[in-house]
Design a protein that fits this description.
This protein is α/β, with parallel strands linked by helices and about 350 residues long. Helix content is about 40%, strand content about 20%. It contains 15 helices and 11 strands.
């Protein structure tokens, strides 16, 4: 656990903790949606500093964690059987599919490359015109502009051997799915600031109004998170519900209009399967028909059967905020980062990985 003296502004951290303690009179359950926020809460020991009445649960805001098994299997198939150059962000490499991960396929000789940008994959395609290059496009709204730009960049250069395997998921529909879950225990949300930096705030007002649930858009530093929690607790204690923007130094109400234009040009909303959760209507992006030549799903027409989750893994309950990672019977035993049963144990934004690495047990 971190001590107050270790924080960038320990006096402000202490003040916020006292404000939360003073304001809280009832038990409240709050969900931070973003996996990056989860890691900040756990790594910085904030969960142990909050009052006992404030319970933080961890949401599905880890795109790697919710990528369906059959898409990982498809990526493995493209690399092994279709002999494509399969490019991916590093987080996806070790996530288990039904029988193997991309790292296993790479160890077996498949040409799988870890990149930091999809534009690198476009360059690889230009340099290898005799090979198909597929970028595994995983992410929330935050990474969608770069993935869309890679398609536009390839089209402008006349590169025909480039495509993306899309696994984009969207935050607002996931929040609604959590609220509508019959087992839901969430009473207020910390919304992901980086997503709102792209998309703005408009999609969240209807959720707040429809479900009478408070929401605060929050950053990632300890002070950001504590300010967001303090704002949310104040609303809950007063019986209020509204959307507030703690992250106003970064998030504009309209988001980034130019980035949104790029997204809308290349992608369209679609239903999307979330690993451990199920299909959520309108919760994903698919490539528009006008850019079908860059859609790996259409280009290769690979049919991969859906595979069942590991029965010993409770990732779905963790991603819905119903369980904490250490409440899994296999946490730190059969399931470790070196041998993950589920994606949240291996992803850098996964709640299970955060608890494992930072020994956060409440």
């Amino acid at each position: 656990m971190k001590y107050l003296s270790e924080y960038r502004d320990p006096a402000l951290v202490e003040k916020l903790l006292k404000d939360i303690e003073r304001t809280t009179t009832k038990p409240w359950t709050i969900m931070e949606v973003c996996g990056g926020q989860t890691h900040s809460l756990v790594k910085n020991g904030l969960l142990t500093l909050l009052p006992d009445k404030v319970r933080m649960v961890h949401g599905p805001g880890c795109p790697v964690c919710v990528t369906p098994i059959h898409l990982i299997d498809k990526a493995v198939y493209l690399a092994e059987e279709k002999k494509v150059i399969l490019c991916s962000y590093g987080d996806m490499i070790r996530v288990p599919g039904s029988s193997k991960s991309l790292l296993d396929a790479k160890a077996n000789g498949a040409d799988i490359r870890i990149l930091y940008s999809p534009l690198e994959a476009v360059k690889i395609a230009a340099e290898n015109p005799d090979k198909e290059v597929v970028f595994f496009a995983v992410g929330f709204e935050t990474t969608a502009p770069a993935n869309a730009l890679s398609v536009l960049h390839a089209q402008r250069q006349g590169i025909q051997n480039y495509s993306i395997l899309t696994s984009h998921v969207l935050v607002p529909p996931a929040m609604e799915a959590i609220i509508n879950d019959e087992e839901n225990i969430v009473q207020g949300f910390l919304a992901a600031g980086h997503v709102c930096t792209i998309m703005g705030l408009d999609e969240y007002y209807p959720i707040v109004e429809k479900y009478k649930i408070p929401m605060v858009v929050t950053g990632f530093e300890p002070v950001d998170l504590l300010q967001g929690i303090a704002m949310l607790i104040k609303q809950l204690e007063q019986g209020d519900y509204k959307l507030e923007n703690q992250y106003s130094r970064v998030v504009e109400p309209n988001g980034n209009p130019e980035a949104r234009k790029v997204i809308e040009k290349v992608f369209e909303p679609s239903d999307r399967e979330w690993r451990g959760i199920g299909t959520i209507p309108g919760s994903g992006f698919e490539i528009r028909p006008s850019y079908a030549a860059y859609d790996a799903n259409k280009k290769f027409e690979v049919n991969i059967s859906k595979a069942a989750e590991n029965k010993e893994c409770i990732a779905g309950q963790v991603l819905r905020g119903l369980k904490k990672p250490h409440e899994c019977s296999q946490f730190g035993k059969k399931c470790t980062p070196a041998n993950p049963l589920g994606a949240p144990m291996v992803s850098s934004e996964g709640a299970c990985a955060a608890y494992y690495h930072y020994a956060q047990v409440e």
